[in-house]
């Protein structure tokens, strides 16, 4: 017998259904469908699927199938699921089964997201606006403000990107990997780019920007790091040069560059330098967001100062 599971109507999940949330942990029922059946005179094969916890169904294809047979089987299942009140239907297709994409699209599926090894398609069965969660909306970048007790900071020049060949010094930056914490990611980026071992101290500032990367938004965190040494071994593939310089000299150099005030590198460097020049220390944490500043009060509670 074919078990389709409960046809409940789940609410929209704010956490989203991304490449890492659609794992075995959300599956409530698993169906092993390898036998064949006949519907309305057509041979169809039961597709492997599971019911999720939100009233939806996930088809996860792993073995090759003729596109016409796949289309007929999918059409049959969609009809049954619609009768049972199932709402959201997902299809996970590995790259090796990309020949089935057209069949799914012809049945009404759309692209939801793609990763290195698979494509996820989605479909909404009811005749109502869909409430399926959108794909991941942000990526997370980090910048490292690495300074020792002599007020010397670690700076680099890049071999590629918008600053290539301009002779501009900047702080090490990078992108946090999937599943990686910000404090771990920024330490890793410093080590990879400069060879310097450092320890995370605190988040100094953060900034949100939009349409930064393939139309996605970007969250950029400036972090204070304490160097364990300044033994530099630059990353040959990405870094043109790396050195240690006095923060006051670096601040003067910043204002003689071609960077614009709205540029992320200008903002990052300016915020970090100004706070340090104002005798900011790790004993007086400060978190600054574009548009407002948040300080730790004497009672160790965050208080806002919108005019600072």
Automatic annotation (TrEMBL):
Nudix hydrolase domain residues? 137-272
Query: Which SUPFAM superfamilies does the annotation name?
Result: Nudix (SSF55811)
Give the InterPro entries listed for this entry.
Nudix_hydrolase, NUDIX_hydrolase-like_dom_sf, Nudix_hydrolase6-like, NUDIX_hydrolase_CS, NUDIX_hydrolase_dom, Pre-Nudix
- Which Gene Ontology terms cover its molecular function? ADP-ribose diphosphatase activity; metal ion binding; NAD binding; NADH pyrophosphatase activity
Mind telling me which Gene3D superfamilies this protein's record contains?
Answer: 3.40.630.30, Nucleoside Triphosphate Pyrophosphohydrolase
Carries keyword Hydrolase?
yes
| CDD domains documented for this protein | NUDIX_ASFGF2_Nudt6 (cd04670)
Q: Name one Pfam family in it.
A: Nudix_hydro
Q: Which domain of life is it from?
A: Eukaryota
Q: Which UniProt keywords apply?
A: Hydrolase, Metal-binding
Q: Which family does it belong to?
A: Belongs to the Nudix hydrolase family.
This protein is called Nudix hydrolase domain-containing protein
**Species of provenance:** Aegilops tauschii subsp. strangulata
Provide the organism lineage as a comma list: Eukaryota, Viridiplantae, Streptophyta, Embryophyta, Tracheophyta
């Amino acid at each position: 017998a074919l078990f389709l599971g409960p046809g409940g109507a789940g609410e929209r999940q704010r956490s989203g259904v991304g490449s890492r949330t659609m794992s075995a942990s959300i599956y409530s029922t698993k169906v092993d469908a390898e036998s064949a059946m006949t519907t309305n005179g057509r041979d169809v094969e039961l597709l492997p699927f599971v019911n999720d916890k939100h009233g939806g169904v996930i088809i996860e294809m792993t073995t090759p199938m003729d596109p016409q047979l796949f289309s007929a089987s999918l059409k049959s299942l969609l009809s049954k699921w619609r009768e049972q009140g199932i709402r959201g239907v997902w299809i996970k297709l590995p790259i090796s089964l990309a020949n089935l994409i057209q069949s799914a699209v012809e049945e009404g599926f759309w692209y939801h997201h793609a990763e290195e090894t698979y494509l996820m398609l989605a479909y909404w069965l009811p005749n109502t606006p869909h409430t399926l969660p959108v794909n991941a909306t942000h990526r997370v970048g980090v910048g490292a403000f690495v300074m020792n007790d002599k007020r010397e900071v670690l700076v680099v020049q890049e071999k590629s990107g918008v600053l290539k060949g301009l002779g501009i010094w900047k702080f090490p930056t990078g992108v946090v990997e999937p599943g990686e914490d910000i404090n771990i990611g920024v330490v890793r980026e410093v080590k990879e780019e400069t060879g310097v071992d450092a320890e995370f101290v605190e988040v100094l500032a953060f900034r949100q920007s939009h349409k930064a990367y393939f139309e996605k938004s970007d969250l950029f965190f400036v972090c204070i790091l304490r160097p364990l040494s300044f033994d530099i071994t630059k990353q040959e593939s990405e870094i043109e040069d790396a050195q240690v310089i006095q923060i006051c000299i670096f601040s003067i150099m910043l204002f003689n560059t071609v960077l614009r005030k709205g540029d992320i590198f200008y903002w990052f460097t300016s915020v970090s330098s100004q706070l340090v020049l104002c005798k900011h220390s790790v004993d007086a944490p400060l978190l600054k967001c574009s548009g407002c500043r948040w300080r730790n009060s004497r009672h160790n509670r965050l208080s806002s100062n919108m005019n600072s």
